[in-house]
Each structure stands twice: as C-alpha cells, then as structure tokens.
From TrEMBL:
Keywords, sorted A to Z: Membrane, Transmembrane, Transmembrane helix
Transmembrane parts of this sequence: 12-29
InterPro entries in the cross-refs: AB_hydrolase_fold, Hydrolase_4
Name of the protein this chain belongs to: Serine aminopeptidase S33 domain-containing protein
Source organism per UniProt: Chlorobium limicola
Pfam family, one: Hydrolase_4
Residue ranges of every copy of the Serine aminopeptidase S33 domain listed in the record: 80-206
C-alpha cells in the first residue's frame, strides 16, 4: 500500500512539474506587454507648417548633438510632387542616409532625415540610447509622416533595420504613405531562433540592461565616428517589441500604406529573414499591395547597405536600385 501511495505521489509530482514547465513555456514563448500603439495623425497643413515643425525638431537638444547627426531637411523651399522620409538604423544617425538623400533631392524631392529618439548625440558612449522605447519609435514615425505631408503631394518613407521596423509600423497605420520601402527590418535577429524571439524579448525586458561592443577589437574606435560603438540589449528589446506590435496589427488588418516594397539582402548576417517573411505573409493574407526585391548575393553586401562609409558598400548599385523601386511604386 505504501509503495502504491509513493508511486501516486511521484506521478502527481511529475504532472505538477510538467504543468509548471508547460505554463512557463507558454508564458515566455508568447510576446507579452504589447501596447496597441495606435496612430495619431496630425499632418502639416502646408509647406510652411511642415518647415516650422521640422525646425522645432532640429533645434531640440542641438547643443548635445553631433552636427553631422542633426535633423536634415533638404528642401526646395516649396511643396514638391514627392517628399521622401529616410529613417536610419539603430545606433546610427541621419548621416547614414545623407548621400542617398542628396540623390533624391537632385531628382526634385524634398527630403527629411530625422534622428531616431536618443540618437545622434556627440558623446558616443552615452547610455541615453538605452531609454529607447517602442512607443517613442511609433510617435517618431507619426511625426515625420505628418511633416512630410506638408513637404510633398506624395510621401515615400524608407528605413533600414530599426528604421525598417519603424517604417513598417507607419506602413501598417498611415494611409497617407504612398510607398513604404522597408530594408532589412530588425523584426528578429539571426542569432536568435525564430520560435525563441518572443521569449528572448520577454526575458530581456525584465533583466537589468547590458551592453556589448559592435566590434570587440576596435571597441570605441569602430567606424563611422558619428555612430554609437556599442548597443544596449534593452534598446534592441524595444525594437523587437515594435516588430511584434506590427505583427499583431497585421494579423487583423491590412496595412494602410498604398504600396509596400520589402528589400532583402541575402548576405545580411544580423537580422532574421524568417521573421521578416512572417510579417510579409501576414500582409499578403490581407491582399496588401506588396512587392519584394532581393539584391544579388554576389554583391556581398553587409547589413548596412546604405552608409557609403561602410567597407563592403556598393552604393553604385544599391542607390540606383532603391531610387528605381521608389519610382516604380509611385508610378
């Protein structure tokens, strides 16, 4: 009788432990604490209003900013037929898109390149970047689209990496975007298996923040000197969080942007292509007006295929193709 009771206790204990493990896995494997992050449009009424709002953003924190990283408005001093918003990646700044912005400006566009929140500070070792939040990125997206509405009759928004996720959020919510070009979005990271992405996000959102160098050998000497040389895991968690917010919205609604172009780089060793495909499939399920373009693997492009100061850069091929994709989408 005693042996039977002991056996029953062991079985119940096994069931209890199994239940706890399954409940824990269910809890951490599902993205948690996702806000709705609805858009709150307040578009500029005309060019003058847009220019004023851009100037207000430009002078905010001016004394602390690297001069290369302040908001850049390449303006023809009037409303043009097309306005282009360019959104840089995490730890970079508007200088990343400066050269491509000039190309669009020379085509007759008004171009807006605004630093992401907590970016572009002159002190490269700042810990301020760790304060970045999904809510701030969404508010940033709303603001730059609002400004662009007064800069051009049509609006193109293009972003890379974290800027790509920010552009994706805008594409999901803003019907006044004529074309959203999303380049290598950081919906997930290659080092994290896709099924564990939500779990990693959940765990790091409650752990104390930690930092790593982008280059363990060069550390603070890593180029370019206008970008931050290290990253915050808390900030990366917030970028993932915004990506899950986009995915959640995409499950139920078609993206609002008139056209989306997803730009992929087969040699990208940073972001998860599988996570990007998950978002794309959700959009396609709603019959979104979406096309994809993949650069040839033989180009050996790095993750940052925009900044001309990157060693593996091929802007002679990348820039004309991105400009062409924008023209095709608008026309």
């Amino acid at each position: 009788m005693r042996d039977l009771l002991n056996a029953l206790r062991r079985q119940w204990m096994l069931l209890l432990v199994s239940g706890i493990v399954l409940a824990t896995l269910f809890f951490i494997l599902k993205a948690r604490n996702l806000p709705k992050l609805a858009s709150h449009p307040h578009p500029a009424e005309d060019y003058a209003a847009a220019a004023r709002r851009a100037e207000i953003l430009r002078v905010q924190g001016k004394k602390l900013m690297n001069p290369l990283c302040r908001l850049e408005l390449m303006s023809h001093k009037r409303k043009t037929s097309r306005a282009v918003i360019l959104v840089h990646g995490y730890t970079s700044c508007p200088q990343q898109f400066q050269e491509l912005g000039k190309r669009f400006y020379d085509l007759g566009d008004n171009v807006l390149i605004a630093p992401l929140p907590h970016h572009g500070l002159a002190y490269r070792m700042t810990e301020d970047q760790a304060r970045l939040s999904a809510e701030e990125l969404a508010a940033y997206a709303d603001e730059v689209v609002d400004i662009a509405r007064g800069l051009g009759d049509r609006v193109v928004m293009m972003g890379i990496s974290a800027g790509g996720v920010t552009t994706a959020w805008a594409a999901q919510h803003r019907s006044d975007i004529d074309c959203a070009v999303i380049i290598s979005p950081a919906f997930g990271f290659k080092e994290i298996p896709v099924p564990l992405t939500a779990a990693v996000m959940n765990i790091y959102s409650i752990l104390p923040d930690s930092w790593s160098w982008w280059d363990e050998k060069l550390k603070e000497e890593v180029l370019p000197h206008y970008a931050y040389p290290r990253y915050s895991r808390r900030a990366l968690t917030e970028i993932l969080r915004l990506g899950f917010v986009v995915e959640q919205a995409a499950e139920h609604n078609s993206p609002a942007a008139k056209k989306i172009v997803m730009v992929c780089n087969p040699n990208d060793s940073s972001i998860s292509k599988e996570r990007t495909l998950q978002i794309v499939e959700r959009w396609k399920a709603h019959q979104a007006n979406l096309t994809s373009f993949t650069f040839d693997a033989s180009l050996n492009l790095g993750h940052d295929l925009i900044d001309p100061n990157q060693a593996e850069q091929r802007i002679d091929i990348v820039y004309p193709k991105l400009i062409e994709l924008c023209a095709e989408a608008i026309n």
